[in-house]
Structure formats: structure tokens, C-alpha cells
Amino acid sequence: MQEEPINFTDIDAGNLKDNLLAQMENATGELLYPGDERRIFAEGMAYALSVLVSSMNEACKSRLLTYARGKVLDALGERVGCSRLSPTPARTILKFSLAAERTVPTIIPAGTRCTADNTIYFATDSAAMIPTGAMTVEVAATATEGGIKTNGIPAGGVQTFADDVPFVAGVVNIAESAGGDDVEPYPSAIDPVNGDDGTGDNHYRERIRLAPSGFTTAGTAGAYSYFAKSASANVADVKSLVIHPASTTHSQLNAQELAEQEIYPGTVRLSIGTEHIDDLIADLDQALAKI
């Protein structure tokens, strides 16, 4: 059942006009017929008042969590210590290569930046070393800014150095960039460039509702939900989840990197949520019985 919208005053333009005409007729002791200049004036005033009253009504509603947007929503979040989450950057793997074999190791400093279009940059997460006698090294890299705009750069798309590295002749990303998220952006009506359809505000609004539960760390379900959703925008709920990491959360990694994190083709990850333990065991039993 859809809830009735909240209004702080009557915003019906017809009612405003009728009330204003009634007051003028009562004050003058005359009926104001169509064409009467006093009636025309009253109707014009009624329209102006309806616009003003509607604007005031929307301003009042925007102070309520259900209707707040953008900066007003930020202000409501501050009251309960809940800030809007910042965009997260995409990640990729960069492969650096030498122009010629060297007799000493070659260091790629942490934070070395490379780009595909001189707009989006990726910086190496850590220092890397090309050993003596080797020609290449691979290292993880993260975009220097967040958002979905950093996703989708195909393998081979990043080939330009933003920071020169002595003796290193080439760089290329060997994996498509992925993992970037706008998280909780402003609506497009407020931020036309980076805004969304209101999903970011809705996610933030839900965390603000849960925020008072986070005043305690004693383990309430609401507190667990609040802290989990605040940790990452990828947390849509706190229910249990079964996933295949190699093809989902870690799909950007190659076979060697997956093995280093003990993730194999048959690895399945179970994330335990807030359901009752008996229900979880029953679900697992019936699922395993089908294997």
C-alpha cells in the first residue's frame, strides 16, 4: 500500500484561489463575478501564492529524511555521525617491460602512474622489481580517482607513462579495469556530470536510518547492518551469500594471483549473515544433499 505524501500545508491551487476569493468577498460584502478586475487580481495573487506555498512546502519536506536529497541529506547524516561514502577506484594489472636486458635489478616505484587517455590514471599499489636477466614485471594498480568511469578500460588500453621510470620502455595493462563504483553520488539533478537516478541518495538514506543502531557495538542486528553497509557500498544487504570468487569478486586476477590468495576454480565462499544458525544449517544441508 502506497503511503500518502506528507504536506505541511494545503498546496492545492484551486483551494487557495477559492479561499482568497471568499475572504475578499467577505471583506467587500460583494460577489466578485468573472471579469471583475478585483477577481482577476485575486486569481493572479492566488497563482503567485500557490507557487510560494508549494516551494515552502517542499523546503519543509526536504528536512525530513524520506524526502531529503543531496547536501540536505548530508546535513541530516552529520547529526547521527553518518557521512556519505566516497567513490571507490577501479583496479587493474600493469605489465612493465625493459628496452634491453640489464645486469642489475630495475625498480618500479610505488605510485608510478600510467594512463590510457591522459584523463584517468592508474598508480602502482606497491614497488615492483624486474630481476636481473628478466625483461618484465607485473604489478597491481589502482585508479587515482573513484567512480564507474574508471571501469571498462580494456586490456592493452593503458600504454602511456605519466611518470618516467629509468630503463623501462613500455607499460600495458593486462586486465580490464574493474571494481570502480560511484557508491553514493548525488542525484543527476544536483550533479549533472557525476550524478545518478537517486540510487546513491537512497543507499545513503538507508544507512542514516540505521545509524542510531550503530551507537552501540553490543551486536544488535541493526548495528551489524549499519557497519556492514558503511564498510562498502558493495554490501547491499546483510543476508548470507554464497558466491564463486574466481568468476565474480576476483575475476580481474590471473591464475597465479588467484592461487596466491588460495582461490581456485572450485573455491566457493560463504558469507554468513544475520539469519538464525538453524536456518543456515538447514539451507546448507539441503544444498549439499543435491551434489
Describe the structure.
The chain is of the alpha+beta class and 291 residues long. The protein is 32% helix and 15% strand. The protein is built from seven helices and ten strands. It has helices spanning 13-28, 37-61, 70-79, 199-210, 221-231, 255-260, 277-288; strands at residues 91-98, 106-108, 113-115, 121-124, 128-130, 136-143, 160-161, 168-173, 241-243, 269-271. Strands 7-3-4-6-1-8 form a six-stranded antiparallel β-sheet, with no helix packed on it. Strands 2-5 form a two-stranded antiparallel ribbon. Strands 9-10 form a two-stranded antiparallel ribbon. A hairpin with a 5-residue loop joins β3 and β4 (121-124). The longest helix has 25 residues, at 37-61. It is elongated and about 105 Å long. The mean pLDDT is 87.
Shape: elongated
Number of strands: 10
The largest beta-sheet arranges its strands as 7-3-4-6-1-8
Helical proportion? 25-40%
Uncertain stretches of 5 or more adjacent residues: none
The N- to C-terminal Cα distance equals 42 Å
Q: For this entry, what is the oligomeric state of its chains?
A: single chain
- Average pLDDT number: 87
Measured by DSSP, the beta-strand proportion falls in: 5-15%
Helix run count = 7
Output the structural class: alpha+beta
If you compute it from the alpha carbons, what radius of gyration comes out, rounded to the nearest whole angstrom?
30 Å
User: Topology as H/E string?
Assistant: HHHEEEEEEEEHHEHEH
For the sheet with most strands, the description reads: 6 strands, antiparallel
